[in-house]
Amino acid sequence: MTLLDLREAPLSVDEALDAVRHPGAGGVALFVGAVRDENDGHAVTHLEYEAHAPMAARELRAIADEIAAEVPGVRLAAVHRVGTLAVGEVAIVCAASAPHRAEAFRACRELVDRIKARLPVWKREHGPDGPYWVGWRDARCDGDEHGAAEGEAHEHGG
Amino acid sequence: MAASVRVLAFAGAREVLGCSELEFELAAPLTARALLARIVERFPRLAPYASSLRLAVNDRYAGWDEVVRPGDEVAILPPVAGG
Fold this sequence. Notes:
- The structure holds 2 protein chains of 2 kinds.
- Chain A is an alpha+beta fold.
- Chain A has helices at about 15-20, 55-70, 100-120, 135-140, and strands spanning about 5, 25-35, 40, 40-45, 45-50, 75-80, 85, 90-100, 120-125, 130-135.
- Chain A has a 4-stranded mixed beta sheet with strand order 1-6-8-2, sandwiched between helices. Chain A has a 4-stranded antiparallel beta sheet with strand order 7-5-9-10. A two-stranded antiparallel ribbon of chain A has the order 3-4.
- Chain A is elongated.
- The relative contact order of chain A is 0.23.
- Chain B has a single domain, classed as Ubiquitin-like (UB roll) (Roll), CATH 3.10.20.
- In chain B, about 20% of the residues lie in helices and about 30% in strands.
- In chain B, the strands form 2 sheets. A 5-stranded mixed beta sheet of chain B has the order 2-1-7-4-5. A two-stranded antiparallel sheet of chain B has the order 3-6.
- In chain B, β4 and β5 form a beta hairpin.
- The longest helix of chain B has 11 residues, at about 30-40.
């Protein structure tokens, strides 16, 4: 069983753990990502998450399948929340189980990293400095109007 | 088959376009690169962001040389920021 989902309802850590635990899993790694009260020096009151939902579901499945093929014996769970989240609320839960801890840690880290790099999800920060889409200002590149014709898009890590 | 593609826009790109979805005329197949160039022609305010955008075709990331055909669904994706 693999738990992979995007949803508006609050996330459950136990649900993710239950999805990956089994008698052969000696190690379970868990990552919980929560909304922080500041980013890049800006105070944050809440976040809005938006997703290309059908594509995100497909990409999440692709990521899980890749990691399952790379790390022997893992079971994975990943649930990402969408909609409006207050500071402290959980935006993402990832869990990975494996016979031993090394594989569990590795799989969980890969799961989080690939989700952050590839899942078509965006967040808008709200705070005293006004709402803005994370990464959008950095995406602006004046004087390079036809850059998309030149190849792959830039990476913008957060 | 419709002589158009359905174009979805997300986050900052959606705000620049002023809508989350539109029909874009496409009489013949075109590469993703050429399609984005056409979209940018129609929405010049998207131009400064063009080098950071990616396109998805039918729910998959598209390479710039991938061919988009009438009837496909195309999504304009700003740099992702999940997690």
